[in-house]
Amino acid sequence: MKYKIVSDSSSNLLSFAAAPYATVPLKIITAEQEYVDDAALDVAAMIKDLRTVKGKTGTSCPNIHEWKQAMADADMVFAITITSNLSGSCAAALQAKAELEEENPAQKICVLDSLSTGPEMQLVIEKLAALCAEGKAFEAIECEIREYMTHTHLIFCLESMANLARNGRVNPVVAKVAGVLGIRIVGVASAVGTLELLHKPRGAEKALLSIIDVMRENGYRGGAVRIAHCNNEVGATKLAAKLRAAFGEVEIKIVPTTALCSFYAEEGGLMIGYEDI
Ligand code: X90
């Protein structure tokens, strides 16, 4: 049985050697250009362009056809998407599944709504690869991965929420009332896959401590951690060191954000996926 893992590009994982794998790209759209979130894109150049671009900027999710193409060439597909509460990616993936299963009833496709994004999706993808490599049955993998996903979480620390607010991904009134538009904010992906804003730490150092406090409060005890950063390798490395100082030999991987998460997390942004096991 041939299996494949497919993710949308909000996972920041555009290639993955441990399993048959593909991503479908989200896009960043400005008045001048469309940036496709795939391996060919120069993300640093896009981030630089975004500093000076004028006019409306936005994003779009992968379409049904893109999902179908990525899913078509395997008997068993596990697809994971950014939260359905902030994007149409999951709806497109579900429609692709429905059409493919009608065309080929023998194909098995599982669509997982991460209710999150970025490094939390990365953890799920890595776990899927391990389960598939063990040669388990499709239904068993689906059952285990859904259980695993109840033990993964996402925290973020953003220095600007301007693009999130402008594109209606956080309520602009709430963001304004909370006074979080111009300052650093720590928050989490809520149980329903929306942004929940928690703290306004003063300074980068306090922000790292706040992240660790929130992780601890939410059940973190030393499980695997994935950190994605937008132009903030220093912050990511410091956070990793603090986590190891507090919890011992933690398994941590640090990756740069690709286009979609770079656009919304913005420069300096950190996203942390972790297990509560
Ligand atoms: O369909 C589209 O156009 C994509 C829309 C994506 C909107 C949100 C992306 C957020 C990325 C920000 C910090 C983490 C947020 C947690 C969400 C539950 C990064």
Characterization of the model:
With about 280 residues, the chain is α/β, with parallel strands linked by helices. The chain folds into two domains: about 110 residues, 3-Layer(aba) Sandwich (Rossmann fold), CATH 3.40.50.10440; about 120 residues, 2-Layer Sandwich (Hypothetical Protein Tm841, Chain: A,domain 3), CATH 3.30.1180.10. The chain contains ten helices and 13 strands. It starts with a strand and ends with a strand. The mean pLDDT is about 95. Bound molecules: heptadecanoic acid (X90). Heptadecanoic acid binds next to strand 5, strand 8 and helix 10.
Describe the structure concisely.
By secondary structure, this protein is α/β, with parallel strands linked by helices. 39% of the residues lie in helices and 23% in strands. The chain has helices at 43-52, 64-71, 89-103, 118-133, 138-148, 162-166, 172-177, 204-217, 233-247, 259-265; strands at residues 3-8, 21-24, 27-29, 34-36, 58-60, 76-81, 108-113, 152-158, 185-189, 195-199, 225-229, 252-256, 270-275.
Sum up the structure in keywords:
277 residues, alpha/beta, Rossmann fold, Hypothetical Protein Tm841, Chain: A,domain 3, 2 domains, six-stranded mixed sheet, four-stranded parallel sheet, 10 helices, 13 strands, binds heptadecanoic acid
The CATH architecture assignment of the largest domain turns out to be: 2-Layer Sandwich
According to CATH, the fold-level topology of the largest domain is Hypothetical Protein Tm841, Chain: A,domain 3
Distance between the termini: 31 Å
| Topology pattern, helix = H, strand = E | EEEEHEHEHEHHEHHEEHEHEHE
Tally of alpha and pi helices: 10
What structural class do the secondary elements suggest?
Answer: alpha/beta
Instruction: Give the low-confidence spans.
Output: none
Average pLDDT for all residues? 96
Oligomer: single chain
Report the portion of residues in β strands: 15-25%
Widest β-sheet, arrangement of strands: 10-9-8-13-11-12
Catalogue the ligands: heptadecanoic acid
